[in-house]
């Protein structure tokens, strides 16, 4: 899967570092203790103090741009399962790719995935899978919807063990068919069957999350309307 691991004390973002190293290296992992300009999905900043896992996996899969959606499902599944295996706690997936924990009926985000691709026409040159996990860092003061493993369990966790478990899962799931990955993903997904609000630049939609389509879209049944496919956006679970 990879032949090198790069480790840094501090970087702007492991995504940027991976992009640079792609010029000289094939498949590798970049890990940093802290990021000064960590990024999240939808152009948001990602706070990355010491104590968390901030890493980017650069791979060169032989898939088309059309098929690349599976990578975020694959990555979030690998992280969710690794956290379950290590902590024995019930982590779940929230569409599109958050790893969450349910406390007193509140959904708290523990980890997120950011996918960046370099492609020519429909052929992928490389994919960078960014993984951010709040492990031993304190985050509750900045982010009311986020939580770290330490805050959740009142103890520290060995980050190397978690990274190894994630990489073992990647090794396994890279050999699994997309349909099977989506099936396993759906089994751990909290979003399906729920009433949600999707926030997109073009506006908001409220409806029931029905299913994940074969192309990775979320099937949403808006009130009194036919189901529509949602490809990206923010998903907020509503209380009913
Ligand atoms: C999200 O949920 O919005 C995705 C968060 C992804 C954060 C990780 S941390 C390692 C990598 N480097 C970054 O700048 N972002 C990703």
From TrEMBL:
Catalysis: reaction(s): biotin + L-lysyl-[protein] + ATP = N(6)-biotinyl-L-lysyl-[protein] + AMP + diphosphate + H(+)
Record domain BPL/LPL catalytic: where: 1-178
E.C. no: 6.3.4.15
Keywords, in A-Z order: ATP-binding, Biotin, DNA-binding, Ligase, Nucleotide-binding, Repressor, Transcription, Transcription regulation
Residues annotated for biotin binding in this entry: 35, 39-41
Molecular function GO labels: ATP binding; biotin--[biotin carboxyl-carrier protein] ligase activity; DNA binding
Domain of life according to the entry: Bacteria
A biological-process GO annotation: regulation of DNA-templated transcription
Cellular component, GO annotation: cytoplasm
Function of the molecule: Acts both as a biotin--[acetyl-CoA-carboxylase] ligase and a repressor.
Protein family: Belongs to the biotin--protein ligase family.
Protein name (Swiss-Prot/TrEMBL): Bifunctional ligase/repressor BirA
Organism for this UniProt entry: Thermodesulfobacterium commune DSM 2178
Lineage: Bacteria, Pseudomonadati, Thermodesulfobacteriota, Thermodesulfobacteria, Thermodesulfobacteriales
Name of the gene encoding the protein in the UniProt record: birA
Interval of the full protein contained in this chain: 83 to 322 of 323
């Amino acid at each position: 899967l990879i032949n090198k691991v790069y480790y840094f004390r501090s970087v702007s973002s492991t995504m940027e570092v991976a992009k640079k190293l792609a010029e000289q290296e094939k498949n590798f992992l970049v890990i940093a203790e802290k990021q000064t300009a960590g990024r999240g999905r939808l152009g948001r900043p990602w706070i990355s103090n010491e104590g968390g896992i901030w890493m980017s996996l650069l791979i060169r899969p032989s898939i088309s741009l059309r098929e690349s959606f599976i990578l975020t499902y694959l990555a979030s599944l690998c992280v969710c399962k690794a956290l379950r295996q290590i902590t024995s706690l019930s982590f779940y997936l929230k569409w599109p790719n958050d790893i969450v924990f349910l406390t007193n009926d509140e959904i708290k985000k523990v980890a997120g995935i950011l996918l960046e691709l370099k492609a020519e026409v429909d052929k992928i040159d490389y994919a960078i899978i960014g993984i951010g996990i709040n492990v031993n860092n304190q985050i509750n003061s900045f982010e009311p919807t986020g939580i770290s493993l330490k805050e959740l369990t009142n103890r520290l966790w060995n980050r190397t063990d978690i990274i190894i478990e994630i990489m073992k899962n990647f090794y396994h799931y890279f050999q699994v068919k997309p349909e099977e990955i989506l099936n396993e993903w759906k089994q751990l997904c909290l979003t399906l069957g729920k009433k949600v609000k999707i926030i997109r630049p073009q506006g908001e939609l409220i409806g029931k999350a029905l299913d994940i389509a074969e192309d990775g879209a979320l099937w949403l049944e808006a009130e009194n309307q036919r189901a529509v496919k949602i490809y990206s956006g923010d998903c907020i679970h509503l209380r009913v």
